[in-house]
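FAQ: What does a ligand-bound record look like?

Like this one, built around protoporphyrin IX containing FE:
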Amino acid sequence: MELIFAQYQSIIVFLHVISAVVWVGGMIAIRFSAHYALAQLEGPQRLARTAHMLNNLFKIVVPFVLLLLLTALIMALAMDLHQSELKVLTFAKEGIWSVMALNLGMMILRRNKAQRFIDAGDFANAKSMLGPIGTLMVPINITLGVVAIFLGVLLRF
Ligand code: HEM
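The answer part, i.e. the structure of the complex:
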């Protein structure tokens, strides 16, 4: 692992950082730009567009979420981070990734349920499925993502 990392250090760190950019940046764009643009639409149309937009976002971010973890594990193993003085930061980042990934998984499930309600014309239930995604779940992941990025700066070697 050390050999792989030594040879491909720049590309591994690059893939790690670009994954965080896509994941966290994607959520920020959706929450602070698309969310307000969609709020101008009427109820059912807004719900349908929101579900569509979230589907597109989730399809883009999921591969980067996995790539983020893969590159993180390569770095942690190569630098023996779990045994080093940086172990607390490393465990903290792993914990943050896990909570973010779980939160993302729950958002995907809620969006899929909302899609089924929309298809069935049940907009009240679709709204209650989608609501917490924008008001709570995405903001939680943005906050955790920003903290993880800051911890990444502290982990720089
Ligand atoms: C899964 C556990 C994680 C581990 C073990 C980990 C490990 C690391 C390490 C060792 C670095 C330093 C790389 C360097 O030499 O510059 C780093 C940087 C970074 N990490 Fe993570 N990371 C994890 C999760 C995350 C998450 C969840 C995010 C954001 C969503 C993230 C975003 C970043 C960013 C943006 C940097 C670059 C910081 C800089 O340029 O100084 N990481 N990470």
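Follow-up question: can I read anything off the structure? Yes, for example: The chain is about 90% helix and 0% strand.
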